[in-house]
Amino acid sequence: MQVEISISVPPDLNLVQFRMNYRQLSALTEMFMDFLENNREKYEQLKADLDESSSETSFLERLDHTLTEKQAKVFRELLKKNHIQEQEICEKYRIDQIDELTVGDVLDITVKNVLPQMKREQEQPATP
């Protein structure tokens, strides 16, 4: 079975689109669950923040906002935890430091770099 996942925002703004089989979808779901379980407090705060200001317009506007100092700190931790070099990201996005990224950039990096790295680490056999 093939599954197509598309993250989009009206009107017709496709942010991310990719295909995967059932096994990959299952692994992705497990990664999300692990991430949420390991970061429950951060998730609860994020959820509360989103509930306060959730609308299509505010979401689209936030995509172009640069990261706050707190968001940049959390994103740096996520990169470090997943063995992704900050310098590599800065070079790819032609910036001097992480806090120059936009929220849209972070979404892109998370889908293209962080989630695949998390999957690779989960697939590695445990060493005795």
What does this structure look like?
Helices cover 62% and strands 13% of the residues. It is of the alpha+beta class and 128 residues long. It has a two-stranded antiparallel sheet with strand order 1-2. The mean pLDDT is 76.
Tags for this entry?
128 residues, alpha+beta, two-stranded antiparallel sheet, 6 helices, 2 strands, globular
Brief overview, please?
The chain has 128 residues and is an alpha+beta fold. The protein has helices at 22-38, 40-52, 56-63, 69-81, 86-92, 103-123; strands at 2-9, 13-21.
Report on the biggest sheet: 2 strands, antiparallel
Extract low-pLDDT stretches: none
Strand order of the largest sheet: 1-2
Mean pLDDT level: 76
Distance between the termini: 35 Å
Overall 3D form: globular
- What is the count of DSSP helices, taking H or I runs of 4+ residues? 6
Beta-strand content estimate: 5-15%
Question: What order do the helices and strands follow?
Answer: EEHHHHHH
Can you give the helix content as a percent range? Answer: 55-70%
SSE-based structural type: alpha+beta
Give me the count of strands. Answer: 2
Estimated radius of gyration: 16 Å
SSE arrangement:
Blueprint: E1 2-9, E2 13-21, H1 22-38, H2 40-52, H3 56-63, H4 69-81, H5 86-92, H6 103-123
Antiparallel strand pairs: 1-2
